[in-house]
Amino acid sequence: MMLLRAGRAGEIRRLLRAFRVVGILGARQVGRTTLARQVGAEFRGPTTFFDLESPQDLARLREPELALGALRGLVVLDEIQRRPNLFPVLRVFADRRPLPARFLVLGSASPELLKQSAETLAGRIGYADIPGFDCEEVRPAQWERLWVRGGLPLSFLSRSESASLEWRRALIRDFLERELPGLGFRAAPETMRRFWSMPAHYHGQIWNASEFARAFGVADTTVRRHLDQFVGTFALRVLEPWHENIGKRRVKAPRVYVADTGILHALLGLRDRDELLSHAKVGASWEGFVLEQVVRRLRARPEERFFWRAHTGAELDLLVVPGRRRLGFEIKRTSAPSLTPSMRSALSDLQLDALTVVHAGQHNFPMAPRVRAVAFRDLLTEVRALA
Fewest beta carbons less than 10 Å away: which of 17, 91, 135, 189? Predict the structure, then answer.
């Protein structure tokens, strides 16, 4: 696993040279601790670890100013969301001159949920979002396993399909029963399981807060709060609609995806590849998987990626806007994609520089001016050329 994540470790080391505090954020069991230990093993100087889920380490931090103040080198604080009151202490230590120690904080909640980090350590902290494995981190022949099992390391590396599924089911239970309550979310685990299962069935569709609220018998604001909580803990992700005024009415609500396809399949009750391929959500699952690979290859920030849908029915799965360029992506689980009226509308209305149609076949070929069909197996090379 360390070899697979070598690029991530290099990113953390670069951030440590630039910032006094670095946050490694990502979903539970995504491999944050393993990555931090790899960085610590290569750090020049002493490294001290604190696990904030450990009673012994919490006891060591009863007086954080005393416990942390004398340390040198690299100090790692794992599960920082358990002790957000440490952020003001870190600000004091980060401002020392000379700087005796740098801090690496690991958490499974976004900066938006960890508001104290953003407010207290502004200008002092750099963040690295660590997702699960992607196609560049596994062998090319393993992409289908990655799609079916998801990118969480222990799920992907499990000895069998059944062992992977059992691990994912246990993770879902732990997330609902321990992780969310530990972050202060008060809803019952069974309620949150129901909520998480609904986006699984709506995976890749436009968020309809009123429909969700009616299903739960609560206010729209309540389901919006639940959505923010799941996005903030990396369980769900949203793709915002393109918001430029292009002269046509457009959809304003985001699309919602379960962040990891392996978790998606577990929530849908799918046990293996065969059950996935015969399920009604196979196309939506494939779309979300491919979309994630494209976004990662282009290193597109959240504010650079969108979907587009006009009320005329024309739509585009993914629009990436790096600077002044506009790159469109349409994802089709077919071996013979064809140019559609929606694609023509997207080219014209969005003034795309290029439209890439990613498909499940074997060949790459031009479909029209500025439109190219790309087989998924060649996606990394083709998208890298666009970056």
Answer: 17
